[in-house]
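Case study B.
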Amino acid sequence: MSDEIRRNMALFPIGIVMKLTDLTARQIRYYEQHELIVPARTAGNQRLFSLNDVERLLEIKSLIEKGVNIAGIKQVLLPIEKNSDDATVINEQTEVARKELTDSDLHKYLKRQLRTKRPGQVSLIQGELSRFYNK
DNA sequence: ATTCTGACA
DNA sequence: TGTCAGGA
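Model:
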């Protein structure tokens, strides 16, 4: 259960997330407006993304590339629960941690992701999914 | 140096 | 979506 906290802990600013996902800041902010992601905020109103946020963004990116629009993605990506979101609350501890571990922890995580091959979690009937495609 | 919101030649 | 302005 402790891993869940680490996973939902807000760590990196948009700049790093951009490199991680190859998405532009514009896109990332746009997806947030459509509630596809709900990154935490610092006292200075800066976005802080968790590993889960990054994963969701990668899923979003994948779907966008396949031509799925926002409406379709909202059906695929489970809506953000209000309860488990409290882990993204920012306190002085995470604030300090963020400054220290940003790249090192990230690389550690990415390596784990590389060997933890996971099957495309997307599971929707093609017919139903096609309803959300742009063309 | 970075990021944020709003707006559109 | 890109990009620029103007502020934090």
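DSSP finds eight helices and two strands in chain A. The remaining cases will be described in the next quarterly update.
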